[in-house]
């Protein structure tokens, strides 16, 4: 099997460039592929889906790619609207294509829950997309509690990122050889970054602080639609 | 019984519209009252993932469009019906656009449900949930994903009851009516 030459990263977060955990995770993986000689290109779904010409550019980039990496946040148990729309368009443009010899497709999903299990349905949807759109499914990586990685490259995220980086390194090494992501990388990333008890404690404090900062501390449990 | 129907059919999808009409007829036979949202016809911006609906304008999205109205309609109902083409096993983009905007209905604070971390409820009452997926033909893989998605979604929406059914575009009208009739066990649910 020839080594892949082109990697495409599609960032599925609606946040501005540089601000999301999806970009931190996907960006790190693609930089590791670039370090192994692959050309890489990054596209943002929020920008892309604004115009037909940009959607056309995405579809062309998908056709050039040997490795297609989709990194996105979990929205209500599955893929965000913009990502779903993008995948609908990609699948439509690739109708009838065979997965044999096709690009590898990798999904990386992160959620605001500490356990990675919440991401499994989204990964099943991604795998089904790969099948229908004629990609080779190279595996899905799920991270729980992804919020602390937002807004900076993983390399700058400190000790908490070590095992995430190790898992992505393992994934990149396999993908660079045209192989699927090893199970150990999937399992390593799925391990909670912090204990669920600590995560929920810190999360609760974070929401209260935000409420305080925004002057709505006492309204955080408001019910504006209550009849 | 107050029902909200979210029609997630894409442009030109007449079958999903037909299913909506069959569903309305079934609900009407039971004396129900349905509010229908044909989502592709509504101006609904996508969720920005900003969490302002939790920390700046608690319980309401900062974007003032039909997405707010759909969320309000859901929480005021006894039953919410998600009607959607099954898309890679999941919801269609049109349905997902509205569903993403519904996180204002739950609280940012965490709780444990069956050992997993989820968000707390914001309201005392949530609607029962029925998801009707539409496939061109039988596809056990997609049906399994869809069923799991609905189960997970029901937990996070704090739905007191939920059901997922999948119909095929090739099925005849009598069969479709029977499926809908059987799929509405929540029709006895009344808001308390």
Brief characterization of the structure:
The complex is a heterodimer of chains A (227) and B (192). Chain A has 227 residues and is of the alpha/beta class.
Secondary structure: elements and pairs:
The complex is a heterodimer of chains A (227) and B (192).
Chain A: E1 6-11, H1 21-35, E2 39-44, H2 45-48, H3 52-64, E3 67-73, H4 81-93, E4 104-110, H5 120-133, E5 136-143, H6 162-176, H7 183-190, H8 196-213
Parallel strand pairs in A: 1-2, 1-3, 3-4, 4-5
Chain B: E1 2-7, H1 14-29, E2 33-38, H2 52-55, H3 66-75, E3 79-85, H4 93-100, E4 106-113, E5 116-121, E6 128-135, H5 140-156, E7 162-168, H6 173-183
Parallel strand pairs in B: 1-2, 1-3, 3-6, 6-7
Antiparallel strand pairs in B: 4-5
Helix pairs in contact in B: 1-6
**Helix-strand string of chain B:** EHEHHEHEEEHEH
How many domains, in number, for the residues of chain A?
Answer: 2
State which percent range the strand residues of chain A make up. 5-15%
The proportion of residues forming helix of chain A, as a percent range, comes to 40-55%
The number of helical runs of chain A is: 8
Task: Please give the radius of gyration of chain A in angstroms.
Answer: 18 Å
Poorly predicted ranges of chain B: 186-192
Termini gap of chain A: 63 Å
The name of the CATH architecture of chain B is 3-Layer(aba) Sandwich
Q: Which descriptor suits the 3D outline of chain A?
A: globular
- What is the percent of helical residues of chain B? 25-40%
Count the E strands of chain A: 5
Structural class of chain B: alpha/beta
Can you identify the CATH superfamily of chain B? Flavodoxin domain
Strand order, main sheet of chain B: write it out.
2-1-3-6-7
What is the CATH level 1 assignment of the largest domain in chain A? Alpha Beta
Largest interface comes to: A-B, 49 and 48 residues
CATH superfamily of the largest domain in chain A: Flavodoxin domain
Number of domains of chain B: 1
Can you tell me the residue ranges of chain A where pLDDT is under 50 for at least 5 consecutive residues? none
Using the 3D structure, state the CATH architecture of the largest domain in chain A: 3-Layer(aba) Sandwich
